[in-house]
Amino acid sequence: MKYVSTRGQVEWIDFQDAVLMGLADDGGLMIPRSIPDATDQLENWATLSYPDLAFEILRRFTRDMPEHDLRILIEKTYGPSYFVNDTAPEDKREVAPVVQAGDLFIQELWHGPTLAFKDVALQLLGNLFEYILARRGGKLNILGATSGDTGSAAIYGCRGRAGIDIFVMHPHGRVSPIQEHQMTSVPDANVHNIAVEGSFDDCQNLMKSIAGDLLFKRQYSLGAVNSVNWARVLAQIVYYFHGAFNVCRRTGAEAIRVAVPTGNFGDVLAGWYAMKMGAPIRQLILATNENDILARFYHSGEYSLGPEVKKTLSPSMDIQVASNFERYLYYHVGGNAKRLRELMAEFSRTGSLRVEPGKGGVVDADFTADRADTQQVLAVIGKFFRNHNYVLDPHTACGVCAAEQLLEKRGGLGTPPRDEDLPILCLATAHPAKFPAAIAQATGRDDLAKHPAIEAMMHLPTRCKLLPNSKQAVRNYIIETLG
Ligand SMILES: *Cc1c(COP(=O)(O)O)cnc(C)c1O
Q1: Which of 249, 288, 360, 438 is the most exposed place for a label (fewest CB within 10 A)?
Q2: Which of 109, 258, 264 most suits a substitution to test ligand 1, by most atoms within 8 Å of the C-beta?
């Protein structure tokens, strides 16, 4: 499998090069040249274990890696170390187990080390980086900026890996105590937390301006782990197949619908690839919080910036521009890189772009979409706990809201639902213990959002470098640290 850029100016590179490149050199995003068709494999795949299924899917995208190496990498990623903080008994540990709650199925993607779904991809990415560096030689220095959740998953993905140092900036005093501890209590010598005296935007601007200095970037081998990295999307395709097989087996349905809480369009894009490969998924239910640029798009065909980013109970979805949307848009315009470049240029000029609707005025029948506001999120968390004794985190709750809207046929934003009788699987993207304040507010109880790993972590010593909001200061710190 070779990879090309959505903007058409990087072509025919191998998987491992695409992983190292992150953002494509022409400013686009790397995608596979074609989407493998797995429809004739479904029967065989339906009963595979998670690692075996991951191997079957990944090997179709990673032809430049020996299969034996890929298998070892997957076993290492989803082996015992993945479950260091999982409370399930050892013989019951699963990467993506499915539970039923009333009419809905929930796929828990938070059994990894930081209790969030980002571990599924970032644990694999860390191993991939280490593997590629070991064979090619050299070092990689990851520089990231986080408003909270991504930072910890990236740190856990890279901690202790040979050849890698990771620097993560967060806004000083502006991330939750849990998020801060999760990042700064990691003792590995290759992990460097930086608290910047500024906002999240300042951190992101520092990252862009430091990584944008190509000389510095090359000299210090700077790399990125944000969700534009193709390997992250790839790793996520696996649990869509796994979840769909599971629900079809339990219900006898021939296909399902999947509700996905969305920020950067990374997770739901993986679901779309799974659908195109032939997974038994009939429709994706895209769910946003009040930052609803994506839900509005599937309703109107117009992708346009809202006012400001709103702070919500689901901070990892408080995103204004979805960095993976460009990949989807590329396919939507029929793989026409020139047309895509025009659309992206229009968006950066005016903050808005529009696509022509397809059949019946529908933007894309593969998707339906909805948004959930704070009141709806609190209400659904409370209701779910009362009715099913199950605690949803506020991100997952956005997806559950959208799913319930469909079940109750109340409509909502987006295209008409397809196949109303098919079961719905809701992706659970974080453990509720990461967001105790929201859970307490929703349920009136402060004893529900607990997890022993988080409680233990709050007592660990922390390490963090406080720096002013200055490019020079951060650069100097990187240079000094790397010697
Ligand atoms: C990152 C994140 C999301 C959004 O995922 P995208 O791939 O950005 O759409 C949802 N929930 C949680 C808990 C997250 O950390």
Answers
A1: 360
A2: 264
